[in-house]
Design a protein that fits this description.
The complex is a heterodimer. Chain A is an all-alpha fold. Helices cover about 75% and strands about 0% of the residues of chain A. Chain B has two domains: about 5-220, Rossmann fold; about 230-285, 2-Layer Sandwich (Alpha-Beta Plaits), CATH 3.30.70.260. In chain B, strands 6-7-8-3-9-10 form a six-stranded mixed beta sheet, with helices on both faces. The chains are: A mainly alpha, B alpha/beta.
């Protein structure tokens, strides 16, 4: 059967039963799930903020540790949703046959995938929330504007969940998911205005980072929130995220239908 | 009587490969209906079309009078599925597996909890209620899958190889449960390549091969129509074969055994023993397995 990649999926409240299933699994295994979001910002802030920051000094009038703090949040938003909807979803789809079990009920495949995407974004929200105490402890957040990071994590997470699901829908095996992880996620983690301002890059790369790399607008918006300054470019960044997320939400679900409904 | 499932000219192709080739069948309320066939016959593909998991290529297929393409959600709400592969949630307990599954059907929690206790009792897993399913044996997992398929009180139960890989005790327990469900008026459709299973459980069955239905009928009728009532086997020594030919008896050689299909096994056996000097003679009634092998051939299906 042929599906257009742009046909709008029809989803009902059933999506939440899929989301709830994943949330239940997360709760059962919370002891292993809750440690990384505490440790990760701690390591980054310590090594890069204090270690490297001592040599860097200030960037545009802010200390280095304050400069990278929003990037650490943005990277966590990216990673938690991306890895949940690549490796996590793939394991549920291929090894656990969980999707097969669910679509034997009134829940449709569109709803299963939408539930997976929403769960991926929810993980971004959970991890951002868990990082908060550590970041506040380091005194690197402007309050209260930084609290916007929590709702924003959902949108940023959904963006990366949808990107991830596109890769999952076409990957021939779980090992092949290493390609987007190393060739897409890792470069983004370095070249999206995370650890140095994009203005130091050649003009061409700057445009690439601003218009193509999905992490750049997420970093920019996070930085606006932690600095409590909102330049007008953030409107462009927000619109970019909304448009790309909406598009990839539709495309990723159709790609998964193409893979699984045969 | 309105059929529960009605397939007319049902076809499923994958590229140039035809998995199900224009088959036609009807399943009626209260029946236990079997799909038999070697690997790759098209049984599982047919099940997947019935449960709206795989779209048909052409033909018509209705379940409870509803079209599988147009009303999958309504159909799926009324059926229970036991898949071939165990796809339980490994992170959850026995009880939680059923609770999570009930949510997909929109069953209110209080009602689901009552139903779960009944079902765990029914499949004899009540004392494993709070055990993580990774600690269950293969037979227990299959029983839990059966319970899971019943959470929505389905009007039609679909089982794909329900007892595959189970020991005899576990198989008999599943059979017992299916017979009980059948006696309560449930319609059951199952695939199997265990002929004994089909003979014991099915009111009616079809034998499939290469995507086609070869025969359809009651197990006993199929045996009677396709074979004589009995089969006599002896070793396939040159002496025995020469002797059979001398008596003008039709036989078939498979490996080291010669088989004679007959309505009078006693007589043939006696003649083989006395006249042909056969050392190893076995007279028995024909079974569905004999019909199956006759129709689908003895070649290995892979």
């Amino acid at each position: 059967m042929n599906y257009s990649l742009l046909s709008v999926p029809s989803v009902s409240r059933n999506v939440w039963t899929v989301w709830l299933r994943n949330a239940d699994v997360f709760r059962k295994t919370w002891k292993v799930n809750l440690i990384p979001p505490f440790i990760e910002p701690f390591l980054y802030l310590l090594a890069l903020g204090f270690g490297l920051g001592g040599f860097v000094g200030e960037i545009g009038g802010t200390s280095y540790i304050v400069f990278i703090a929003p990037a650490i949040v943005a990277i966590s938003i990216m990673n938690s949703a991306f890895f949940e909807c690549t490796y996590g979803s793939y394991v549920r789809m291929y090894y656990g046959k969980t999707f097969d079990a669910i679509i034997a009920t009134p829940v449709s495949l569109e709803e299963v995938i939408a539930g997976e995407l929403l769960w991926g974004s929810t993980k971004s929200v959970i991890y951002t929330t868990l990082m908060f105490p550590v970041l506040i402890l380091f005194g690197v957040l402007s309050l209260p504007s930084s609290f916007l990071l929590i709702p924003f994590s959902f949108l940023g997470g959904l963006l990366f969940a949808c990107i991830a699901m596109c890769f999952t829908s076409v990957t021939p095996s779980i090992d092949a998911l290493n390609y987007p992880s190393f060739l897409f996620i890792t470069p983004m983690l370095l070249f999206s205005g995370t650890f140095f301002p994009l203005s130091v890059l050649p003009a061409g790369l700057q445009v690439f980072a601003n218009v193509i790399l999905p992490l750049t607008p997420v970093v920019n918006i996070c930085r606006g929130m932690t600095f409590a300054t909102f330049p007008s470019v953030l409107v462009f960044n927000l619109v970019w995220i909304l448009v790309v997320t909406a598009l990839l939400y539709v495309v990723s679900i159709n790609l998964m239908k193409r893979r699984l409904i045969i | 009587m309105e059929p529960v499932i009605a397939a007319v000219d049902l076809k499923k192709t994958y590229g140039s490969f035809t998995a199900v080739d224009s088959i036609e069948f009807s399943v009626f309320p209260g029946e236990v209906f079997g799909f038999l066939g070697p690997n790759g016959a098209g049984k599982t593909t047919t099940m997947k079309m019935i449960m709206c998991a795989s779209p048909k290529t052409s033909g018509s297929l209705t379940v409870f009078g509803r079209d599988v393409d147009r009303n999958p959600r309504e159909i799926k709400a009324m059926i229970g599925v036991v898949p071939q592969e165990t796809n339980l949630d490994t992170e959850f307990t026995t009880h939680d597996n059923l609770l999570v599954y009930s949510r997909y059907f929109g069953i209110p929690k209080k009602m689901a909890e009552e139903r779960i206790l009944e079902l765990l009792d029914f499949v004899q897993l009540a004392e494993k209620k709070d055990v993580n399913i990774e600690k269950l044996s293969g037979g227990m997992k299959r029983r839990l899958l059966l319970a899971r398929a019943l959470v929505n009180q389905p009007k039609l139960l679909i089982l794909d190889e329900p007892t595959i890989g189970l020991d005899p005790q576990a198989r008999h327990l599943i059979w017992e449960k299916l017979k009980l469900l059948s006696s309560q008026g449930n319609t059951i459709v199952l695939t199997t390549h265990y002929l004994e299973e089909a003979e014991r459980l099915c009111d009616r069955l079809v034998i499939m091969d290469n995507g086609k239905i070869l025969v359809e009928g009651k197990p006993a009728d199929l045996v009677r129509e396709n074979l004589g009532s009995g089969i006599v086997e002896a070793e396939s020594s040159p002496d025995v074969i020469a002797c059979l030919e001398g008596m003008g008896i039709v036989y078939e050689v498979t490996g080291d055994t010669v088989q004679v299909v007959t309505d009078n096994p006693r007589d043939v056996a006696a003649r083989l023993l006395s006249g042909c000097n056969a050392k190893r003679v076995l007279a028995r009634v024909s079974t569905l397995e004999d019909v199956f092998l006759k129709l689908t051939g003895r070649g290995l299906k892979e």
